[in-house]
Amino acid sequence: PASSDIYKRYDLSLEEYQMYTCDICFVCHGSDVNRHIKKVIDNISGNNSHKECEMIYEIYKGYENFVKQTGKFFYSREMFYEFIDGSTVGLYNRKLDSKALDIITNDMYVQFNQRLYRQVLVDWLLEAGFGNIKLWGNGWTDNEKYQPYAMGPAENGETLSKIYQASKIVIGNNITTTNAARAWETMLSGGFYLSNYIPEEEDFSDIRKIVEIGKDVIMFYGKEDLIEKTKYYLEHEDERQIMIERGRKVALEKMTFDILMKRTLSEVARRLEE
Questions:
Q1: Pairing of strands 167-171, 22-27
Q2: Under DSSP, is residue 120 helix (H, G, I), strand (E, B) or coil?
Q3: For helices 113-127 and 223-235, what crossing angle results, to 10°?
Q4: pTM value?
Q5: Cα–Cα distance between 244 and 63 in angstroms, integer?
């Protein structure tokens, strides 16, 4: 949930509007994926041979290349486990020991995939010709490619709410959950939230259990859909405003702290009574 006392519509000054306004907004920490791979290799190099480090490097780059070529991501730990295990056997005719396999699987699933996902979403939009993008968060300045769009960290609370409000589209970018706090913060602030897709069975916390997709919030399902929906809602101001009002209404009804705590206490009381 989010606080409707903090995330709400504000009267923006001209200076604030000029500072925050953009077509497309990302609020997340960026990462240079190559730097992350190097960090992983550096951490394991002391206990592994040069050939083993090379193999692990190729596994990370292999997944990165797969994503960039197909536009598809892995959403489960099992998919990464099978990919890594299959790659070492197929390419190097050897199996990693279970501990090493678990370590690499967990890093790719929890850390690397999130970093790659956010970077690839930005790449898709830049390659499609969208230039009025602002990237809020740490890390984006580490990569020269994103420096023209990097805004540095955004202060949580009123400042972040004003950023959401001034942006035309805020992109969902959490590959483990669609029900991220950023969704409700954006909607309560009067911003348009374009939610990313995760298969329901792999969604850590599913926004589809709270709101109706297509009615309360719009979701994109891959590269072409992201580009198409971004273009459409930038060109159709009236429909974007309709979705903003719907999103704000459902957020106020279902996902403020006050509303959620009342529901929680009511449910606890019901279960205790049973």
A1: parallel
A2: helix
A3: 50
A4: 0.94
A5: 36
Mean pLDDT of 112-133: 97
Band (pLDDT 50/70/90 cuts) for residue 44 is: confident
Please state, in angstroms and rounded to a whole number, the distance separating the CA atoms of residues 40 and 55.
Answer: 12
CA 167 and chain centroid, separation: 17
13 CB-contact burial (10 Å; exposed 0-12 / middle 13-18 / buried 19+): exposed
Type and span of the H or E element at 11: none
CA gap 162, 108 in Å, rounded: 34
Chain centre to alpha carbon of residue 39: 22
Distances from the Cα of 105 to the Cα of 29, 52, 192, angstroms: 22, 15, 35
Distance (Å, whole) CA 71 – CA 138: 25
d(CA 41, CA 37): 6
pLDDT digits (tens, 9 = 90+) for 141-166: 999 999 999 999 999 999 999 999 99
End-to-end CA distance of the chain: 27
What per-residue confidence (pLDDT) applies to 147? 96
